[in-house]
Amino acid sequence: MGSRGCDCRLAVSTGVPTAVLYGSLSLFVSILHNVFLLYYVETFVSVYKIDKLSFWVGETVFLIWNSLNDPLFGWLSDRSFLSSPQSGPQISSPEVVLKRLAALSRNGPLFALSFLAFWVSWARPGLQFLVCLCLYDGFLTVVDLNHHALLADLAVSAYDRTRLNFHCSLFSALGSLSVFLSYSVWDKGDFYSFRLFCVALAVVSALGFTAVSRLLKSRFQKEVRLRRDEALKLKELSIGQGPLTQQEKPVTIGEYLRQLSKHRNFMWFASMNLVQVFHCHFNNNFFPLFLEHLLSDSISASTGSILLGISYIAPHLNNLYFLTLCQRYGVYTVIRWLFLVKLALSVAMLLAGADQVYLLCIFIASNRVFTEGTCKLLNLVITDLVDEDFVVNQRPQAASALLFGMVALVTKPGQTFAPLIGTWLLCVYTGYDIFERNSIQDSAAAMASPVSGQAGFTVPLRQGCFYLLVFVPISCALLQLLAWSRFTLHGRRLQGVKAQRQGTQHSHLMDVKAI
């Protein structure tokens, strides 16, 4: 109760609650990242005319860098937390939060600057593609890791973390509006207006990161000044206690990986999340293809664009409802429900068939909404894993950013598997190759001809897209339900872990900081 009173005092003195400021950081990421995801490939392919070899070389290097930079930056950020004896009695202290905020204030504007590098031709397309992707993803990783780590450092209780995540979803939904605005200025023939639009977005993002991080830093610097004398006295007492403890022994990366490999809940969660990342990116990659070949003859182009826009914003808005369910029933139960709903909807769509146009529209949109909604709840599960890792391994400090980075290392390959497996399945069953222009005519001929035995077992392109649309979520849901049934960090075990962490840091952690 005492920490609640302290939070209210801080909230009134500064005006804006910490949860709102924390959530607003998602706005400054999403306004840029949504535009990046939608236009960077088309810009380099259609505007800069990058050749196919350079494109795939860039994507391959990006895949390696994208997988390795999360644990790399996480280790650089949190390695001192694993081995520093001085940090032992100050678990999740305001100094840790200040370190995260300092990283955000430095790298947030640089992230915005790296976003601008895509939209001006300044080198050969192949070289620019490679450099821009690696720079952008590097700064995005640092920003995401520190922002997500703050979720575990600002609060321990499930209710307060859900509250923080609620504001992230709200501001992410606002950030998705940049996708709608971008349609009015996007023109491959005249890039000037789109460049000005991107500059405006980058300026808003950079100024937002600077202002919000400074405001949050000033808030926690007050807490540091109030507790500085007490902390110094505690450090002197701990130093004077004599022999070194186990916490003073440095933890190497090899030892940390061995500890993580024995963390059963982490392994089951990583397995489930790998499938989830695969499904999310599969939906992103093949959403336009499904619209074109399943619905283009039945709906107008404007309806298709509206469906696309809704699929970007609805997951954030729907997540607000999911988070209220999490507060009532728990994150584990809500995620399990979402897996069951995904399985039920996919089976129902399979039984209904590809000719039900309105059901197809609803299913394509809802499939993406529920899948993205699940992705946005998983950060709450990772923060629970941070708590369990802290308690089980008796960390002197909660290594939040490092654990988020290790999760990304295991699950990022799903981003690459999604287009590879999807295009391979489509090519095997329909003969349609997205990289060959004449494959469209070949697939159209296969569709017109009822006999396809002479070319092996192939199906019409529209039917192949439909099978891909329904069987991928069915397979993903079954695998995820299997892995999720083995995950035990919920119920009484989760309550016990949180009680141990809160008990360890009771005298030093401000549990809810101005939420």
Automatic annotation (TrEMBL):
InterPro entries cross-referenced by the UniProt entry: MFS_trans_sf, TMEM180
Predominant place of localization: membrane
Alphabetized Pfam families for the sequence: MFS_2 (PF13347)
Top-level taxon in the UniProt lineage: Eukaryota
Subcellular location: Membrane
Transmembrane segments: 20-41, 164-186, 192-216, 266-284, 304-325, 337-365, 466-484
Alphabetical keyword list: Membrane, Transmembrane, Transmembrane helix
GO CC, alphabetical: membrane
Recorded topology in the membrane: Multi-pass membrane protein
SUPFAM superfamilies (alphabetical): MFS general substrate transporter
Stated name of the protein: Major facilitator superfamily domain containing 13A
Annotated source species: Oncorhynchus mykiss (Rainbow trout)
Gene transcribed to yield this protein: LOC110498788
